Amino acid sequence: MNQVNVPSWAFEAGRARGGFSTVDPRATALVVVDLQNLFMVPGQALANAHARDIVPNVNALARALRAAGGTVAFLRHTVSDEPRYRLTEWQARMVPRNADGGFELQAGSYGHALFDQLDVRAGDLVVNKHRYSAFLPNSSDLDTQLRARGIDTLIITGTVTNVCCESTARDGNMLGYRIVFVSDGTAALSDAEHNATLLSMATVFAEVRPTAATLELLRAGT
C-alpha cells in the first residue's frame, strides 16, 4: 500500500475553503475506479501491487455504505470503436494489446473484467467509462445515473490515484458533488505520485480521509 505523507497545512487549507464533517449515506456513492484485471492481476501489463493492497478497504466501505442505504458504483476503463467513445490514434497507442492484437480493455476481454476479489453485489452499478474522468460526455453516463438516485456525495477509491481517480474526483467536484478521497483506498504506482494527488485533493477538491475515518463519517450520518 502507498505510504501517505500529506502536510497538516493542506488539510487546514481545505477545511477553510469548504470542508465538511457530515454526509447522508443515502445520498452518497462509493465510486470504485478501474479495479480491473489489467491493473490488478500479477503479470498483467499494468498490474499495480499497491492496488491489490487496497481491496479489503474498498470492500469494507462498500459493505458499510450498502448497509446504510447508499450506492456502490464500480467503474471499468473501456476501449471502444463506437464513434462517441473512440480514442485518437495517439491515445490508443497507450493501451496494451493482447496476443490477438485486440485492446486489453475492450469489453469482454480478460483485462477489462473487474478483479474477482472485489465484493460486487447485484444491486451495485457497473459503469464502463471511456476516458480518465468518468464525468466527461464522451466517457460515461455515471452523472446521470447518480443524479437519478439523488446522490450528492462521492467517496473515491481505486486506481491509479493520480490519473483516473484524480480526474474523476476533480470533475465530480466541479459538477457540484462533495468528494471524499480515500487515502488508503486509492493506489498509485509510486508514493510520490500518490501523495502529489492527495495534496491537491486536500487543499482544494476533496476531504482526504483514510478508510477508518470514512467509515466513521458514514456511521455518524446514519
- Described by its quaternary structure, the protein is single chain
Name of the CATH first level: Alpha Beta
CATH superfamily: Isochorismatase-like
Helix % is 25-40%
Distance between the ends:
30 Å
Sequence of strands across the biggest β-sheet = 3-2-1-4-5-6
Secondary-structure arrangement, i.e. CATH architecture: 3-Layer(aba) Sandwich
Mean pLDDT: 93
Q: What is the alpha-carbon Rg in Å? A: 17 Å
Structural domain count = 1
Shape: globular
Class derived from helix and strand content: alpha/beta
CATH topology: Rossmann fold
Described by strand count, sense and barrel closure, the largest sheet is: 6 strands, parallel
Number of helices: 9
Low-confidence stretches: none
Describe this structure in words.
By secondary structure, this protein is α/β, with parallel strands linked by helices. The chain has one domain: 3-Layer(aba) Sandwich (Rossmann fold). Helix content is 37%, strand content 17%. The protein has nine helices and six strands; from the N terminus they run H-E-H-H-H-E-H-E-H-E-H-E-H-E-H. It has helices spanning 8-18, 37-40, 49-53, 55-67, 89-92, 142-148, 161-174, 191-205, 211-220; strands spanning 28-33, 71-77, 125-129, 153-159, 178-187, 207-209. Strands 3-2-1-4-5-6 form a six-stranded parallel sheet, sandwiched between helices. Strand 2, helix 5 and strand 3 form a beta-alpha-beta unit. Helix 1 runs parallel beside helix 8 (191-205), helix 4 (55-67) runs parallel beside helix 9 (211-220) and helix 7 (161-174) runs parallel beside helix 8. The longest helix is centred in the C-terminal third of the chain and has 15 residues, at 191-205. The protein starts with 7 loop residues before the first helix and ends with a helix.
